[in-house]
Amino acid sequence: MSAFQTAVDIGQRALQHCGQTRMDSVLGFDDPQSRGASEIAACYDKLREAELEANYWTCAIRRTVLRAIDSNTMLLAPALWAPGVTYFVGSVVADQSGNLWISRIPNNIANDPLLTTYWEPYFGPLAVPLHVASTVYYPGELVYTAPGNGTYRVYMSLQDSNSDVPGTATAYSATAIYFKNQVVTYLSVAYMSLIDLNTGNTPSSAPALWNAATTYGAAATATGSDGIIYTSIAGGNLNHDPKLDGGIHWSSAGVLCPWTTVFVGGAGSAKWLEIGGAEFPAGVALTKLNVIYALGGPSSVLSGSSRSAFKLPSGFLRIAPQNPKGTTPWLGAPSGYTYNDWNFENGFIVSSETGPISLRFVANVTDVRLMHAMFCEGLAARIGMAICDTVTQSASQFQMVAKVYSKWISDAKTQNAIEQGYEDPPIDDYISCRL
Question: The domain containing residue 380 runs over which residues?
């Protein structure tokens, strides 16, 4: 992990390069006593993005699978993170700057994505296709299903070569470990796990949810609306909500019920993670994808030729080498690495390829904890160059900071923090036709 943890850490180094007193570590960019704090705040994000675009920093290289859009494709529409909402594993939210984050833990509540490690940046697809049963999906791909009642459910593929139907539940296994909201079938009945690390609990043995119309006998058990198992103290127990009873008609040891047959989202395959739908108050939402390209198949009204459109992924900054450190020489065979016809237009790739495309790209990494230390040093020096004249009015100081910046960039390339690997050049048509 990088020794740099926050943007303020990078700003402190920028001030050091300029020979200035560091900011207050708590106030950070809001420190009124720091001569350069407000200047750094004004240029930090601009220079961070510019530096990510200027070089292929390995800490920012990502890869995701893109599908060609069609008339059924929807657009991912995460809501703004809210401190009072409980998020599931896989929940995707937006921060105040529009950057997307995906939850790493269940029951994720009051954990700000910008301040905690319970979230990680989401750099996956933004276009969500309708699930097709005959299609094999890759890890991280999103699909949605339409149950037919005007709603939808959104799923993320968890495995490679995934041909499972998302809505088909996985059979219960006594040796498997299940997490909250995972769904299994047992004796042809679907159950949803109510707890994390759920193992060895046979679903059929879980008490049913308390029902106001049921009369419970002595020692009968039921699951309260709070998920806790309650035991009836005496017979004739009717219409006494165990959660609100106060120990008069029900007793409890505080044990959580492991399974329930009443759940949201329907049954689902273990190879898919449900991350949204009409039943999920904090789940991922979808909206219509409005595009200028002809849909219903690979076509383009602009060029008159057969072309497909692919929505660029979340956090895309620039294309990265698609075949770094290749080994196929020009004269090896005419089937070597060839030119592609990708055109980048208004957030889309337009190509004659029908897909799927495994896109390697530079992502807009904002989490300092994910940045290479050499990137942080280089960015600090670059910020120092930007603020040097304002805070020092010294040309010699600027020249010194500029040399530091050049050194860090040079060292980063030497240490492969900036990708410098060999990439196969495309085969020239003239060479290919002579082989």
Answer: 1-69+292-435
